[in-house]
Design brief:
By secondary structure, the chain is an all-alpha fold. 62% of the residues lie in helices and 0% in strands. It contains 16 helices and no strands.
Length: 340
């Protein structure tokens, strides 16, 4: 729904461009052909028959993972070039900024202890290019970094210097991410996008709860691990850690996200439940933003397309890694997220 400050037709051109780009998304048939391959080489050959061919050629020596990253990066750059408000693209890139900050700070910690930094783990998918971010962290000059990074990074460094607690550092940066994500979405005044962000927060909180059920010594601090801003407040979720996950669906039956909890059973294997939950969560987030496709002028179509590109990249990595490791084909199919 357009806001009073945004003409209803402002996103008409952008949505038309996105519709054309959607035709280049890989379909289920392509993924099934890749799964049916007996070797990684033959699966990559199938991928080479798609729009990924140019990225596979360009990143030939680096492998398929870098080709997937390059294709996703190109999608972000292309979409940012024609949308009226680039912050809507930045929403999808924020987690990679946080990943890069974590990598750099952990690298510094390792270096102080005589270890080796892993700059190869940095990704090009963030809003801030890796050279700029690396210089900022190493030079302790954060001036001009966007989305509150100029304040979050020094605060994280100070926290580490004070407590030397890696878990606290991780929690702080994750908290920054979700706060920044919600603040950016609310600043855009796009209700559908805010709903998508809240679904992300709810899902992350439930995933955290599931993990905490297997770490009894952390249960008293459960609320500190959860993030505000979702449809379910941390105060509502925290007590669930004392309940069996198989009961969560009943206790949260009033919430839309309760459908994700069907994977939780009393005698279920924890690793299998977590894998199934993560798949269900990705599909739930896709469903949350899916209604945008029915409006020619809905800005949330930008998020919807880029999220589908993210899911496509995730599915490709699942398939290619699984084929390379000889995973049973039906098991691979069971891991795939919805592609449309």
């Amino acid at each position: 729904m357009p806001t009073k400050n945004r003409p209803a037709t402002q996103y008409g051109y952008a949505v038309a461009r996105l519709r054309a780009l959607e035709n280049r998304l890989l379909d289920e048939t392509t993924f099934q052909r890749m799964i049916d391959c007996d070797t990684l080489e033959s699966a990559v050959k199938v991928l080479g028959e798609t729009p990924y061919s140019s990225w596979l050629m360009e990143q030939k020596s680096a492998g398929f993972d870098k080709a997937i990253e390059a294709a996703l990066h190109a999608a972000y750059v292309e979409v940012a070039g024609f949308v009226p408000e680039t912050d809507i693209v930045s929403l999808l890139r924020l987690p990679y900024d946080v990943h890069n900050v974590k990598t750099l700070l952990k690298g510094q910690i390792l270096a102080e202890r005589g270890g080796k930094r892993r700059l190869d783990l940095l990704t090009s998918l963030g809003n801030v290019d890796t050279d700029t971010l690396t210089l900022a962290v190493e030079g302790e000059d954060y001036t001009g970094l966007p989305f509150g990074l100029d304040k979050a990074i020094p605060a994280a460094v100070e926290l580490w210097q004070k407590d030397q607690d890696a878990l606290a550092l991780e929690k702080f940066l994750d908290g920054y991410y979700f706060k920044s994500l919600l603040k950016t979405a609310e600043g855009l005044s796009m209700p559908e996008v805010v709903r998508w962000v809240k679904a992300r927060i709810d899902g992350e909180n439930l995933k955290t709860l599931l993990r905490l059920t297997h770490i009894p010594e952390t249960r008293a601090q459960t609320a500190t691990f959860l993030h505000a801003g979702g449809t379910l407040p941390p105060a509502t979720l925290a007590p669930l850690v004392m309940e069996g996950p198989e009961n969560w669906g009943r206790l949260l039956s009033y919430a839309g996200i309760s459908k994700l909890l069907t994977a939780f059973t009393e005698d279920g294997d924890f690793s299998s439940m977590l894998v199934q939950f993560e798949k269900n969560l990705d599909n739930y987030v896709t469903e949350t933003i899916a209604p945008a496709r029915y409006s020619t002028f809905e800005p949330a179509n930008v998020v919807r397309y880029l999220w589908l590109k993210e899911i496509e990249a995730k599915n490709l990595r699942i398939v290619l890694v699984s084929v390379a490791n000889g995973v049973e084909k039906d098991a691979i199919r069971g891991l795939l997220r919805d592609v449309r």
